[in-house]
């Protein structure tokens, strides 16, 4: 089936127009336009099959070392899936089979895209793309059935005005040039074989590791030999510079003979040593005539007065690791007030059901009269979740933050920045809902 679903150069050109890329921003005001055009011509090769394109997207996502580039390729793949579903008029099951991607993932991608195009048909799209297994009734859903049931026309582009990925400067990263060079080499074959590419990379990685180990061992052996060689030469140098005196002994004179001591035993017995003067010495006075008397010495320790017990820490071992009162009262919050005068709040939320979290948060925005910052619409869909940049009335701030904390697992950060000050009576709140 994969040979029947192929794409011509014209198909890829229409996909690029449908995508509404901001080429000037992507190529950094045209500075890297040649690199981007080279990437597009190699990646979207004429007469490529759908299966081949799936392999290429998998290759690009797995080998992008920089997060923004990997996110951009993921976004590009999702848009391509929606484009194929709409333009080729194929079913969800066939699309999943050709792309070798689980049908649940395909259904989620299509549902998110069409929900942005037809937000007033959100409930219908949730129901029709609820595909849990291969025997689901909507496993063979296609675009023709959808537009017929909702009564809409297919006159829309692939990106909306607030989408940030259409203008992301991916060509500005150094990893882009490295990826482009490697992609050009790997895509030179007639058909991309991911297993063969992975095997080659593993072998190359093993060889690189082995060469590094050999280099380390070689350097270590050389250093040991160098130290030993230096020690030998230094020892030789010292032995040449230092001369050790060795006494010269003459041969014994054969004519010399020992004689016995002529001093008799009686004379030794009658020998007396006059020690009387030594015993009469008085050591109670010094040479200057002063009397030396024993005196008792008393050592006085210095007294330390504690003016206040409150000045001492509770525990000297943890004196520098105690939490502030703010962090003790708010176990899921962190305060950073080192910089700036403008107080902002950041909420990092993780959710297994981002759609539900997004719906609940939008209800909270209406309830507490929360407004958006600049032209960023609340609940902006980005790869991995949803993003909110809000102004919350100060009178409802505490209650609003408490309600947000109950939506799903969340951590609230309070910090101060040097950005422009908050409007009167409002506080800026950032919310990032990450899908897990």
Radius of gyration: 43 Å
Structural class: alpha+beta
In helices, the fraction of residues equals: 40-55%
Q: Overall pLDDT, averaged?
A: 79
Instruction: Sum up the overall morphology in one term.
Output: extended
Oligomerization state of this entry? single chain
Q: Number of helix segments? A: 16
Provide the succession of SSEs. Answer: EHHHEHHHHHHHHHHHEEHEEEHEE
Total number of β-strand segments?
A: 9
Q: Strand-residue fraction?
A: 5-15%
Largest sheet: 7 strands, mixed
Total discrete domains: 3
What distance lies between the first and last C-alpha atoms, to the nearest angstrom? Answer: 34 Å
What are the segments in which pLDDT stays under 50 over at least 5 consecutive residues?
299-309, 316-322
Summarize the structure.
The protein has 436 residues and is an alpha+beta fold. It has helices at 9-19, 23-26, 33-43, 50-62, 67-87, 92-99, 103-117, 122-128, 143-150, 174-186, 194-241, 265-269, 276-279, 325-329, 354-367, 397-405, and strands at residues 6-7, 48-49, 333-336, 342-351, 371-372, 380-382, 385-393, 409-417, 426-435. The chain contains 16 helices and 9 strands.
